[in-house]
C-alpha cells in the first residue's frame, strides 16, 4: 500500500511517501516516515482526527497536527473588521 505522511508549517511542508504492508497503523507509518514530531499534538487521516492505532488503507494521507497559532473565530473577526480596499471611496467622482 502507498501512504503519505505530511507535516505542515505556515509557509512550508514536508511530505514523505511510504510503501507499507496491509495492517500498518498510523503510528507505525509515522515512525517509518522519520519526520520530527516536535510540537505535534494529534494525527489525522484526510482531515479527520485519528489515534495512532488506526489502520491505514491504500492512498491514505496522514497529517501531523500542531496546535493552532490563532483561534480561527478571532482571526475571522479581525479580518472582517479591517477596511476593505477601495471601501469608502464611492461618490468621489
Description:
Helix content is 19%, strand content 30%. It is of the alpha+beta class. It has one domain: Beta-grasp domain (Ubiquitin-like (UB roll)), CATH 3.10.20.30. A hairpin with a 2-residue loop joins strand 3 and strand 4. The chain is elongated and about 55 Å long. The protein starts with a strand and ends in a 12-residue tail after the last helix. The model has no long low-confidence stretch (mean pLDDT 87).
What strand order characterises the main sheet? 2-1-5-3-4
* Beta-strand segment tally: 5
Q: Give the H and E element order.
A: EEHEEEH
Q: What's the CATH first level? A: Alpha Beta
Please tell me the total number of domains.
Answer: 1
What's the SSE blueprint?
Blueprint: E1 2-9, E2 12-19, H1 26-33, E3 42-45, E4 48-50, E5 61-65, H2 72-81
Parallel strand pairs: 1-5
Antiparallel strand pairs: 1-2, 3-4, 3-5
List keywords for this structure.
alpha+beta; Ubiquitin-like (UB roll); elongated
Quick structural summary:
With 93 residues, this protein is of the alpha+beta class. The protein is 19% helix and 30% strand.
Amino acid at each position: 500500500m502507498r501512504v503519505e505522511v505530511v507535516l505542515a508549517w505556515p509557509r512550508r511542508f514536508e511530505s514523505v511517501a511510504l510503501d507499507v504492508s496491509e495492517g500498518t497503523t498510523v503510528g507505525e507509518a509515522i515512525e517509518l516516515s522519520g519526520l520530527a514530531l516536535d510540537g505535534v499534538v494529534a494525527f489525522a487521516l484526510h482531515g479527520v482526527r485519528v489515534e495512532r492505532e488506526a489502520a491505514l488503507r491504500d492512498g491514505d494521507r496522514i497529517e501531523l497536527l500542531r496546535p493552532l497559532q490563532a483561534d480561527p473565530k478571532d482571526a475571522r473577526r479581525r479580518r472582517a473588521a479591517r477596511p476593505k480596499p477601495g471601501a469608502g471611496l464611492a461618490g468621489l467622482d
